[in-house]
Fold each of these.
Amino acid sequence: MSDLHNRKVYYPNEEFSKNARIGSMEEYKKLQDEATNDYEGFWSRHAKDKIDWIEPFTNTLDESNFPFVKWFEGGKLNVSAQCIDRHLDTRGDKTAILFEGDRGDVQRISYKELHVRVNKFANLLKEDFGVKKGDRVVIYMPMIPEAAFAMLACARIGAIHSIVFGGFSSEALKDRIEDAKAKVVITADGAYRKEKPYLLKPVVDAAITRTSPVEKVLVVERNNEKVDWVDGRDFSYHKLVENKSDECEPEVMDSEDPLFLLYTSGSTGKPKGVQHNQAGYILWAQMTMEWVFDVKEQDVFWCTADVGWITGHTYIVYGPLAMGATTVMFEGVITHPDAGRPWKMVQDHKINQFYTAPTAIRVLHKMGADEPLKYDMSTLKVLGTVGEPIDPPAWKWYYEKVGSSKCAIVDTYWQTETGGHVISPLPGATPIKPACATLPVPGIMAEIIDEEGNTPELGEKGLLCITRPWPSMIRGVWGDPDRFKKAYFGDVKKNGKPVYFTGDGAIYDKDGYITVTGRTDDVINVSGHRMGTAEVEAAILKHDNVAEVAVVGKPHDLKGEGIFAYVVLKCEEVCKEAQEINTIIKSEIGNIALCDDIVFCPGLPKTRSGKIMRRILRSLAKGEEITQDISTLEDPSVVACIEEKVKN
Ligand code: WT7
């Protein structure tokens, strides 16, 4: 990163800045200073201003039991009312959800219509399924409007939803259902991908075993393909919802009642159920929509994520709807029928803000560098990226070809645990540099420090931390308070007190801009999604002939990182193992965790205490020369052996 300090600076578009909510660095600094000088005052002011409280809060922040913090105690609200009811008078006929199906079918759902659909859905869950406040509901759905209705219906009645990404296998779904003890699963028969129907319901069937906590399954009919049906357990959404009342009084929720769980990978063990609560989460979802995307009343906003990930939660459903925006939801694949699909959608729907992942940008660039030029994309104002560091060539293409060198690019850094953006440019204020997340969003006390809380030397890598709790901070790991403490507040201290560590490394440049360099732990970032090496290893170990395995990430042109597995077999004859290993991964986790490389080796590089030296394995995967001292290994000769195998 030698050129880190000399990157080209791109200044905000002047016309844009004039009308932006935060239109200059002076305004940015003013907000950040306000937060620094009066942290609680800052948050209290915004919480009063932005949230439609049923009862006002009495205490802004209680840190007495840190890291178990409480925001806006005493406050009562309902997140579905914040997202729907409060807009009915002023924008009832405005499109809330603009849905485009895989085959080009379009639905426009107004705020009034959304109100009806969510209320009926909520009444169904209450009356037919007996879902009550605090119950967990797993949602395993394709990208169709009913996925958003399901989320908001849960929020309306105070049930805790836990969405499982539709690409996860039945085993992965089963683990998440059981960990959350969900009594209801909402799914669909299937959906469409590249104009062909595919199925989801069979995955749910396989995930519900005899001992499952699931009592009832609701099936939304999307493609009407034939699926198995368990009488008394499975119910048709369309049949049940028809005769439901379209009025459902929103449940009065405390600020700190749980809103949802979302499972994500850690560096060890099983996926963690990241818990987000009501008020703090919805406040930051809404504020970042306003500040980072600067969405205006007439704008159309499109985030290409899947609702199965946090990006889909915060920036397809909760954030846009809380601010009363029009949010686009897309069922299909962005490269189908060709790499012009997203640009055609920008033209057709007059999209103003487009938000996607670097991996998608790289694929679109590679498959159709000139596709953007074929469409009228003059409506675009802000382009966003999220999920992984973006590489400068992809950034440049995005800026020049997609944004016609006039749109701000907001490189938004955040995580499932942060609920919303924490480091990002503001499009009307921040001068941007390619592939740089720039500065903390006002109100977020993000810092690069070392384990003792000291700022590293300029240009030195440090640990990216957030030194004060923020409203949309993770509130817990479901059912495991110890893991919550250890995973996030165990490694770094500032002034002797534990602080939140993101798990990422980062570097300051001479202007104080933050460049995120990637995970410092054993988490791989595949196409912008987190994959725990431990999970992939556990899946591979299920193969009868596998004695030992170590999984590392390896740079990949399109995916960012690919998965590289070193496998030691019990019986050394390698024949079908590589294929079988990927079959196991597919059934244990899903296609997203398939290995790009599998190398069979006689042993793994271990220290004398038995710890696998992953650093060596990462270097070997990249084809790098091993320069570090390997004499302390239990068997140093194994390194040369592996090197040989990797080369072949
Ligand atoms: C991890 C979080 C937040 C939604 C998508 C992924 C990486 C995220 C950036 C960025 C560099 C980024 C980090 C982070 N990451 N955004 N703009 N620049 N790295 O959510 O699955 O919780 O993963 O994604 O490594 O820790 P997630």
Note: Residues 264, 310-311, 386-389, 411-416, 437, 502-504, 516, 518-519, 525, 528-530 surround WT7 (CB under 6 Å).
Amino acid sequence: HENILAAAKSRQDFTANVSHELKTPITAISGYAELIENRLIDSEAEVHVASQIRHNADRLLSLVTDIIQLSELDHRELPRKFEQLDLFSVARECVNEHVLMASQRNIKLICSGTSAGINADRRLVREMIDNLLQNAIRYNKENGTVKVHVTIENGHPMISVEDTGIGIPMEHQNRIFERFYRVDKSRSKETGGTGLGLAIVKHIVAQHDAELNLESTPGEGTKITVSFPVYQG
Ligand code: ATP
Ligand code: MG
């Protein structure tokens, strides 16, 4: 009974958060359109207004994408496609796709480790690693480093994503996996964060019977490790 009440409450919170997050960019776009409609934008301000509209549209797009992804994970609508994968080669693929994003921030990206077989859904595992990488780059410092490492420990395939970034204060460490939770709302918003990435990660980890571990020191960096079940081949 209590579980049902808690689930209803969390659905209500989620809906309230979604409405709030969606309203902000929509209101901005509508406001800029109104200015144009009333011919209040001179040619000088035109470019600025256009870029604001695009910025808000991009934000809306990433919000909608994340929300759809979460809702698919919630409802298990998509059939899971579990197959034998090498965690190390999936990690390398994801790392390669982030080279540009990292170089734009002067961040060194390192991928190391050994092959490790897992039974997993490729699309979901990529989504999980992408989200961890994005965070490790986004919440890093100028000239920082991101290390992705794959190993097998006591039979458990493991991947860790470690950064030399801003870190997460102790009192927030339990909460960052909640939907829409952001440590520093202003910084995260300015860099485009929605607060859904780690909620998606947590979901994907659960779907693979894997385990999540977080170690973080403010001002020094963060290391997130995902440990998969012992591989049966
Ligand atoms: P999104 O991933 O949806 O674009 P986001 O990055 O804000 O937005 P999460 O990935 O869920 O959302 O992360 C939640 C919060 O946890 C972030 O806003 C940030 O404050 C903090 N955080 C996550 N990863 C790190 C990290 N590697 N270093 C420091 N803080 C982090
Ligand atoms: Mg994120």
Note: Residues 131, 134-135, 193, 197 surround magnesium ion (ligand 2) (CB under 6 Å).
